[in-house]
Amino acid sequence: MTRLHDELARIAEHAPDVDLADRVLRGARRRRTRFASAAMALAVTVVVAITLTVIGTGTDAAPMTGRPVASPGPGELPVKGVSPAAYAYYDWCGREITSGTARLSGRDCLQWRLVTRSGERYRVPEAKSAHAGPADNAQTLVAAPLEITPDGRKIAYYSEKDQRFAVRDLESGSILLAPPLVPAADVRRNAAEIALSADGRYLAVSVQDGLNTLADLETGALTDLPAGWKAQSIGAGGRPVVVADTGRLGLFDDGEVEPFTGRAWHTPGVADPDETTIAYLTRPYPENGGSTDPTVVDAQIATVDAVTGEALTSVQVRDVPESFFPLGMGPWLNATEVTVSGRKLDARPVKGKDNVIGWDTFAVDVTTGRMRKLDTYSIEAWAGGIVLPGY
Amino acid sequence: MRTSYLLCGDAHQAEEMLQSVLVKVAGNWRGIARDNPEAYVRRALVNEHISWWRRQRRSLAFTGPPRSGRDPGDESVSRIVLWQALARLTPRQRAVLVLRFYEDLSVQEAADLLGCSAGTVKSQTSHALGRLRALAPELADLLHDTDTDTARQEAK
Hints:
The complex is a heterodimer. Chain A is mostly beta strands. Chain A is built from 3 helices and 26 strands. Chain A folds into 2 domains: about 50-225, no CATH class; about 240-390, no CATH class. Helix content of chain A is about 10%, strand content about 35%. Mean pLDDT of chain A is about 80; it is low at about 30-60 and about 135-140. Chain B is an all-alpha fold. Chain B has helices at about 1-10, 10-25, 30-35, 35-55, 75-85, 90-100, 105-115, 120-135, 140-155, and one strand spanning about 60-65. Classes of the chains: A mainly beta, B mainly alpha. Strand 26 (about 385) of chain A pairs antiparallel with strand 1 of chain B.
């Protein structure tokens, strides 16, 4: 036994003290009963099931609107008239969180902050941010998701008071809700993910082991995505929808997914402004089949046809910074360059400042593979996250 | 549950992960029971953790390094520092450390469970320990005897 073992054992003592066996067995029995009933129903009525499930396209579908905070306080996002967003972030109040997060519960500084292109900085109290506490060791450091359209005019976030994901037009102040009810506990525990279309009209919401749907916010129509595939990016007008499972990328259309890659480490991108081409970064899994090396080694920047998924180009990425770890791909900068955000593993972007974290953005040329740095976004924080428009 | 908690670092997620794995085990119990159910659950947990991490990596949160100048002899502080440093390892590196130094599996046992070679486990262990040292130099004392233990196990 080593001291490391002893320390790990002490940490493990904080694991939840719950007996899952009974819960699992009850669930398994329930599923068996359900399966038996379903099989009988199937025998009586022969139904050809098609993967496509469209919910709400009938007469029941209707858009849902939300309400902004009636009278925002000082520093809070105004009801309307907000100029386009440059980025959003949360910073855990700039505090070191080694002793837990419970003491930060309810603090304004936990909220998402929105920074506009004209330099204003607002708190966004209606957007659910990171969860603080209650136990010191239950540190879920990632906030509920927030996304910004590439033009910075709309933001998507989780509205706790509506128990739904919402998209807000910053200029007009109008708020549209994605119809499915998503309890706050599910957002916190089950790693809810969203993808907002470039025009802000479509919002995909997925919650682990539950909801996985694409909402047209203007009509209220919902389209379920096939199990295992999650939306990564959505073009303006709702097409193309780039989806990913564990290791593959595909296009979702007419209720079906057409994979356009094999299994590898992919960083999915968005369609170009013409919506004819999709770019993505790809690098092979290590030979041992594991996922031990997430840094960009032998990465390729590839493009596919946005309609057919047909491979168009693939070139080796050049001038990759050492230990660069891609986090996401953003909008196209011009006809041949696409943007990528990332950071260096084990390195702070702002040297000499331990309490500053940051992310770099780069442009990658899909024809030459050449990579060049664009900007660094940094915040004074020990932990947190940043969201850029269109990423 | 404890292994699940060490792998993912979050109480709620540990519960969800283990429940999800146990549901799969319960559904295929006849097939699994003939084999080695404990190893199956461990392997399924590691896989579940890695796939969860992949889903999450689009919105990773970054934790700053612990403030320097603390007394490395302070047990609770080193635990917190270790906890934070573990959170910054890749899921595979974290899994290797948990399997080898918490579950006390041999190199070969860990390799069988992870579906890779013994050499890969050795190199991953070495990388993971090296990264822990780089992320949290104050853990040097805590990690000191892992070298001896690693050498002893590898000699087996």
